[in-house]
């Protein structure tokens, strides 16, 4: 496993993280198995949100922590808030109430990282600053980041904050590449040259902010995975060639494609299957060549100008 520094005041985090969005329907013992399998592979990072399973995902995870308190110091826990029953809400009151709920459900006294889940157009950065300051000074949250924001939204917020934003969690997979497409197709007049993220990929690299990639195997918005999907036959052929070459499975190669980006990347996998967690962990040990990376990008249906 490889580790990166997400924030100076928390322990280094594995480049593969376990997304907990889909654990809410599991049994407690299955959640414990997910945590222990991850730790056995060197994965110490767990990503939550207050809305996952309407709080059930955090609750189950928290029950495991309560019964196994020694686990807490081995792991880095991140959660998110800012989605409030059909709207986005970065008010001070909502952020603070959300974090209190998160800590109670997770049975922990602090979060290592808190992300604002989706940009709130009505946000007042001053309110976010006050909320973050209260949470930081009380020791409830150690570091702060965002999710699904472009660079200007980040700058608007950062301008007002005494804390460095450490991460931006964005959708990125071989079958969902707007972050990458706009940089490859600058000034082409082609549709994938349309600027959808305002150079956010390059901005994160420039500022040394961690790019956390959500839904690393999905296409569309939770429409399904591209692995073994007949609509992505060329991509699956290319993945299989590399999987055979490296002695791994196709999902491992798909994660290593994300990790090959030349900046700080954390892949947030959503699998709840222990064997697939092991596959994900193996991606940290594979460094694709630049040619392999571009071949996969093209096999996913992209052309180069
Ligand atoms: N910030 C945001 O707005 C945002 C949005 C969405 C998600 N997220 C985060 O990103 C995490 C990952 O999202 P996701 O669950 O959509 O990602 P994903 O890893 O692309 O998809 C996981 C799903 O694919 C299934 N799957 C089937 N074959 C698989 C294989 N070979 N390997 C791995 N999985 C396979 C898994 O099933 P099994 O469980 O049966 O293996 C699971 O249902 C979430 O848990 C959450 O933490 C963040």
Write a structural description.
Helix 3 packs parallel to helix 4 (125-137). The chain has helices spanning 28-40, 56-67, 92-106, 125-137, 151-158, 178-184, 200-206, 233-246, 250-259, 274-282, 290-299; strands spanning 3-4, 13-14, 16-19, 45-47, 76-81, 113-116, 144-147, 165-171, 210-214, 218-219, 224-225, 265-269. The mean pLDDT is 98. The chain has an eight-stranded parallel beta barrel with strand order 3-4-5-6-7-8-9-12, surrounded by four helices. With 305 residues, it is of the alpha/beta class. NADP nicotinamide-adenine-dinucleotide phosphate (NAP) binds at residues 19-22, 47, 117, 147-148, 169, 214-218, 222, 225, 227, 251, 268-273, 276.
Show the helix and strand layout.
Blueprint: E1 3-4, E2 13-14, E3 16-19, H1 28-40, E4 45-47, H2 56-67, E5 76-81, H3 92-106, E6 113-116, H4 125-137, E7 144-147, H5 151-158, E8 165-171, H6 178-184, H7 200-206, E9 210-214, E10 218-219, E11 224-225, H8 233-246, H9 250-259, E12 265-269, H10 274-282, H11 290-299
Parallel strand pairs: 3-4, 3-12, 4-5, 5-6, 6-7, 7-8, 8-9, 9-12
Antiparallel strand pairs: 1-2, 10-11
Helix pairs in contact: 1-2, 1-10, 2-3, 3-4, 8-9, 8-11
């Amino acid at each position: 496993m490889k580790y990166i520094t997400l924030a100076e005041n928390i322990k280094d985090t594995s480049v593969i993280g376990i997304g907990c969005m889909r654990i809410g329907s599991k049994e407690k013992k299955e959640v414990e198995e997910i945590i222990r399998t991850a730790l056995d592979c060197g994965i110490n990072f767990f990503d939550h949100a207050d809305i996952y399973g309407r709080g059930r995902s955090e609750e189950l995870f928290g029950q495991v922590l309560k019964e196994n308190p020694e686990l807490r110091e081995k792991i880095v826990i991140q959660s998110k808030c800012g989605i409030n029953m059909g709207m986005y809400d970065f008010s001070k009151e909502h952020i603070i109430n959300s974090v209190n709920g998160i800590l109670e459900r997770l049975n922990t006294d602090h979060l290592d990282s808190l992300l604002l889940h989706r940009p709130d157009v009505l946000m007042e950065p001053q309110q976010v600053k006050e909320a973050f300051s209260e949470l930081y000074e009380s020791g409830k949250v150690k570091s702060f980041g965002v999710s699904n924001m472009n660079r200007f939204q980040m700058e608007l917020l950062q301008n007002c904050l005494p804390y460095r934003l450490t991460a931006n969690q964005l959708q990125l997979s071989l079958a969902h590449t707007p972050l990458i497409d706009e940089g490859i197709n600058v000034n082409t007049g082609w549709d994938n040259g349309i600027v959808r993220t305002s150079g956010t990929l390059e901005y994160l690299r420039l500022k040394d902010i961690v790019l956390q990639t959500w839904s690393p195997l999905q296409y569309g918005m939770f429409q399904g995975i591209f692995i073994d999907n007949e609509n992505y036959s060329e991509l699956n052929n290319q993945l299989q060639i590399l999987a055979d070459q490296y002695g791994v499975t196709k999902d491992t190669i798909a994660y290593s494609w994300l990790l090959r980006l030349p900046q700080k990347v954390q892949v947030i996998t959503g699998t709840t299957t222990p064997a697939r967690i092991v596959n994900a962990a193996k991606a940290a040990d594979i460094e694709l060549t630049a040619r392999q990376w571009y071949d996969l990008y093209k096999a996913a249906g992209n052309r180069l100008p």
